User: Which sequence fits this backbone?
């Protein structure tokens, strides 16, 4: 039996009473899944995990994305193919220099986003594990997009209910000043279309936004941009957010279908922050899912 301690009025809980390095019984995983659906963001603390144990726990939630290194020019840290490197160290184990490509690309994580909305089949959830943390800063901040949706005025809900948005990582990285892709990456990184209001299988609607959200389909460019910015500003008010101060051996899982997140600054050219992320794939594109549910 796990213990679930809610840490914020609308979302985020700490789960205690389970060792996630070990295989889970179906009953135990069902308890964790219920906590995940209720809280959208969970932390499991004091969990020393190997890379493989991190991957094995993640696989309970669904199939994992393989990592694509289309943006990196330097040799990267050697990791299993299902782990995305969210650290500031290079392949030698030293802190990345200020002009490192991966560092520049990862600066884009400082803008509010949802993982992998730029892919046709986006991410269901992400599981980020901390091996080393800086002495200050480097929090991951989350926004509850269910609570934000609920708080919208009805006329705004009606206005956006059926909208579809184009998401592109080329667009979001451009906003962070990054435009230096490897050969062929631009062709591979075609934009994807996603609904703006997601119906979460646990029974609530949520705003589905990200830094990757580039334009509203069928709307003039500027009007779509303004709408997306307004909604993002609304959804990231302090009352909808929680900033997690990391400890080594924290494992966090968040639901990309109903939260946004961003990383916060830290002294990243002098202090180490070593983290790895698995990303669980959703089953289907969100626009296709809505069409299938309406049929
Ligand atoms: Fe992210």
Assistant:
């Amino acid at each position: 039996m796990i213990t679930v301690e809610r840490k914020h009025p609308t979302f985020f809980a700490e789960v205690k009473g389970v060792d996630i390095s070990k295989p889970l019984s179906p009953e135990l995983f069902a308890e964790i899944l219920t906590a995940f659906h209720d809280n959208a963001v969970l932390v499991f603390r004091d969990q020393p995990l190997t890379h493989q144990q991190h991957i094995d726990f993640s696989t309970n939630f669904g199939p994992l994305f393989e990592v694509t290194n289309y943006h990196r020019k330097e040799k990267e840290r050697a990791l299993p193919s299902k782990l995305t490197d969210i650290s500031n160290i290079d392949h030698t184990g030293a802190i990345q220099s200020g002009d490192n490509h991966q560092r520049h690309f990862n600066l884009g994580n400082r803008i509010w986003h949802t993982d992998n909305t730029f892919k046709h089949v986006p991410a269901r959830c992400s599981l980020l594990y901390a091996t080393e943390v800086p002495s200050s800063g480097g929090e991951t901040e989350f926004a509850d997009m269910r609570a934000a949706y609920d708080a919208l005025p009805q006329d705004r809900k009606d206005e956006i209910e059926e909208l579809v948005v184009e998401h592109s990582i080329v667009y979001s990285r451009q906003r962070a000043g990054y435009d230096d892709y490897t050969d062929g990456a631009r062709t591979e990184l075609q934009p994807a279309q996603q609904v703006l209001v997601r119906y979460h299988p646990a029974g609530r609607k949520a705003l589905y936004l990200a830094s990757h959200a580039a334009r509203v389909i069928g709307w003039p460019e500027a009007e779509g941009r303004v709408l997306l910015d307004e909604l993002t500003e609304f959804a990231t008010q302090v009352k909808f957010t929680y900033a997690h101060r990391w400890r080594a051996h924290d494992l966090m899982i968040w639901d990309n279908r109903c939260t946004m997140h961003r990383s916060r600054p830290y002294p990243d050219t002098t202090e180490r922050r070593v983290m790895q992320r698995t990303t669980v794939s959703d089953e289907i594109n969100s626009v296709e899912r809505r069409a299938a549910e309406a049929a």
